[in-house]
Amino acid sequence: MLKLKNVISGYKNFKIHIVNLEIYEGKKVALLGPNGSGKSTLIKTLLKMLNYEGSIKLFSKELKEISHKELTKFCSFLLQVEYHPSIKVKTYLNLANVKLKFDILEISGLLNKKLDELSSGEIQRVRLSRAINSDSKILILDEPLSHLDPYFQVKLLNYLNQINKTIIITIHDIHLALKFFKDFIIMKNGKIHSTLLNEKIFKEIFGVSIDNFL
Fold it and tell me: Which of 16, 74, 86, 161 has the highest CB neighbour count under 10 A?
C-alpha cells in the first residue's frame, strides 16, 4: 500500500535516507527513535510537505502525482504544530467535513467553545477527534499522546487498535509503544535502523535496557 524506495528528503542541514520500506494495508506501525532521528521529517515527507528524491508509492501511485486534495481522501493526519484560529470547535470539525461519529476523546462538551479558549490537552483531543473521525484509510499521527492525560492516552491507543485503518504513529512513551504495537520502524540519524525491536537494538538506539520498560 505504501512503498518507499531510495528516498532522500529533509532540509539543508538534515536529510533522511530511506532505502526500502513497505507498509501494508491495515498495519499499525509505531515510529520510534531518539529526538532528531528523522521521525517527523519522514512523516512530513509522506504528507507532501517536503520534496523528495526517489520513489514513494501510495496504492501503487507515485506520491508526486497525487494532489494534496486527493491525498486528504486517503490520509488524515495530526502534526505536532498547528495554528489554532479563534473559531468554535464545531466549526473546526465542519471545515474538514468531519462528523463526530465516535466521541472517544469526549469532546462533545467542547463543541461550542473556541479553540483559543481551550487548554493544550483539550486542543489535542479536538485535533485527534477530527483525525480519527475522518473517512480516510490511513492515519498518520505525530506525537498524538503529547498533552493528553494518561486516561485519554490509553483510551486513544485502545481505539486505534480496534479500527480497520493503516496507522503510522510516532510515540516517545516506550512502555505504551511496547504494550499497544507489534510493528515498529526504528530510526537513527535519518535512516531506518531496524523494523525489529529487541534488547540489542533497543540498547543501540536508546542507550538503556528494554527491561526498564517491560
Answer: 16
Query: Treating both helix axes as pointing N-terminal to C-terminal, what angle do 120-132 and 150-162 enclose, rounded to 10 degrees?
Result: 10
Task: Name the band, by pLDDT with cuts 50, 70 and 90, for residue 83.
Answer: low
User: For position 91, which CATH number holds?
Assistant: 3.40.50.300
Q: Which domain does 80 fall in, by range?
A: 26-50+67-213
**Residue 5 included in any domain:** no
Q: How many domains does the chain have?
A: 1
Residue 6 lies in a domain: no
Q: What is the average pLDDT across 46-66?
A: 96
Q: Is the pLDDT of residue 208 over 90?
A: no
Number of neighbours of residue 76 by Cβ within 10 angstroms? 21
**CB 171 within 8 Å of CB 177:** yes
Is 12 a member of any domain? no
Burial of 92 (0-12, 13-18, 19+ CB in 10 A): buried
Residue 47 CB burial class (10 angstroms; 0-12, 13-18, ≥19): middle
Task: Give the per-residue pLDDT at 58.
Answer: 95
Give mean pLDDT, residues 17-37: 95
Tell me which residue of 24, 17, 27 sits closest to 2, measured CA to CA.
24
Assessment of whether the complete model's pTM goes beyond 0.85: yes
Of 57, 50, 42, 56, the C-alpha closest to 190 is 42
